[in-house]
């Protein structure tokens, strides 16, 4: 019987080129990401070995690679790119990605959230 787990990567902070305004185009800015993946396994995780499960290192490393190699105009595009990265693993049935730019306004944080499924 298949088993469903939720794998989380919360508050991943990266410096990334993101935005459309002149101040945002001048330099990378601080962005936080939350990633929630619903992952299906063929059975219960019983051997207590990383080979049994999704290793979230690939998501973290992929986001850091994006931050180094790519610039985004919109948070929506960034969230979609992170979701696509997660869905590369066929065990991921659903992923929700939330982004946050904490330094745009002194009294608020701005963000985006997308959910993608197979």
Structure description:
The chain is of the alpha+beta class and 118 residues long. The protein has one domain: 2-Layer Sandwich (GTP Cyclohydrolase I, domain 2). The chain is built from 3 helices and 5 strands, in the order βαβαβαββ. It has helices at residues 22-26, 57-69, 75-86; strands at 3-18, 29-41, 71-72, 92-101, 110-117. It has a 5-stranded mixed β-sheet with strand order 3-1-2-4-5.
Summed up, what is this model?
Helix content is 25%, strand content 42%. The chain is of the alpha+beta class. A hairpin with an 8-residue loop joins strand 4 (92-101) and strand 5 (110-117).
Give the count of helical stretches.
3
Helix content: 25-40%
How much strand?
35-45%
Q: In the CATH hierarchy, what is the architecture at level 2?
A: 2-Layer Sandwich
At CATH level 3, the topology is GTP Cyclohydrolase I, domain 2
The H-and-E topology, N to C, reads as EHEHEHEE
CATH superfamily: GTP cyclohydrolase I, C-terminal domain/NADPH-dependent 7-cyano-7-deazaguanine reductase, N-terminal domain
Main CATH class: Alpha Beta
The domain count comes to 1
Please give the order of strands in the largest beta sheet: 3-1-2-4-5
Number of strands: 5
Q: Which sheet architecture does the biggest sheet show?
A: 5 strands, mixed
- Globally, the shape reads elongated
What is the CA-CA span between the terminal residues?
20 Å
SSE class:
alpha+beta
Radius of gyration: 16 Å
Estimate the mean pLDDT confidence. 95
Instruction: List the uncertain runs.
Output: none
């Amino acid at each position: 019987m298949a088993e469903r787990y939720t794998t989380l990567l919360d508050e991943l902070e990266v410096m990334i080129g993101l935005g459309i305004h002149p101040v945002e185009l001048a330099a990378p800015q601080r962005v936080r990401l939350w990633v929630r993946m619903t992952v299906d396994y063929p059975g219960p995780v019983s051997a207590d070995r990383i080979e049994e499960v999704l290793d979230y290192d690939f998501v973290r490393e992929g986001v850091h690679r994006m931050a180094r190699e790519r610039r985004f105009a919109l948070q929506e595009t960034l969230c979609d790119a992170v979701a696509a990265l997660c869905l590369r693993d066929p065990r991921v049935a659903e992923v929700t990605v939330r982004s946050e730019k904490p330094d745009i306004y002194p009294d608020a944080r701005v963000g985006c959230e997308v959910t993608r499924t197979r």
